[in-house]
Amino acid sequence: MASRGGPRAAGTDGSDFQHRERVASHYQMSVTLKSEIKKLIYTHVVIWLLLLAQMVVGHLKLLPHDQVAMPYQWEYPYLLSILPSFLGLLSFPRNNISYLVLSMISTGLFSVAPLIYGAMEMFPMAQQLYRHGKAYRFIFGFSAVSVMYLVVVVAAQVHGWQLYYSKKLLDSWFTSTQEKKKK
């Protein structure tokens, strides 16, 4: 091959290098999945900060009790859900499979499990609100049960997609590892 401005090698138009410049599909997928997981982690951090703010305001009584209710029991273990997110972020720079697996397992334990418990814990109060129209806890004038169920639904979707994309990323990393071993 010749330089940019110089003569071309005989018998070539200069386009025969393009086959060498393609990026393997599993590398492209890895970059895309890391980007999606990062977006989900940042969304999770926002949800986590809102719950933390609600807990701090409730416990320190910075606002009246009718403005921000005391937290439900499921919110305390959910505070640990920030750990799997950091493990996920730590796994990205060097494609660390063990950190990603730990992130996926701890997401189930510290994120999904408290959400399931929270849905069960709040169910009797939601039933009472639906049947009788009575709510005893409020967050800025809205029924605390309704607001927290909305948080549970959004958080469950965020963690579900996070686990799904993490599994796809793990598969992508295993593909690249297998290809390296073949060489």
Gap between N and C termini, in Å? 27 Å
Residue stretches low in confidence (pLDDT < 50, at least 5 long) are: none
**Which structural class should the secondary elements be placed in?**
mainly alpha
- Which percent range describes the beta-strand content? under 5%
Tell me the Rg in angstroms: 24 Å
Oligomer: single chain
Please sum up the structure shown.
The chain is an all-alpha fold and 183 residues long.
Overview of this protein structure:
The chain is mainly alpha-helical and 183 residues long. The protein has one domain (36-182). Helices cover 68% and strands 2% of the residues. It is built from five helices and two strands. Helix 1 (25-60) packs antiparallel against helix 3, helix 3 runs antiparallel to helix 4 (97-132) and helix 4 (97-132) runs antiparallel to helix 5 (144-182). It is elongated, with a radius of gyration of 24 Å.
Provide keyphrases for this structure:
2 strands; mainly alpha; two-stranded antiparallel ribbon; 183 residues; single chain
How would you summarize the topology of this molecule?
Layout (H helix, E strand, L loop, with lengths): L24 H36 L14 H4 L3 H10 L5 H36 L5 E2 L2 E2 H39 L1
Antiparallel strand pairs: 1-2
Helix pairs in contact: 1-3, 1-5, 3-4, 4-5
Main location: endoplasmic reticulum
Membrane topology: Multi-pass membrane protein
GO cellular component, one term: endoplasmic reticulum membrane
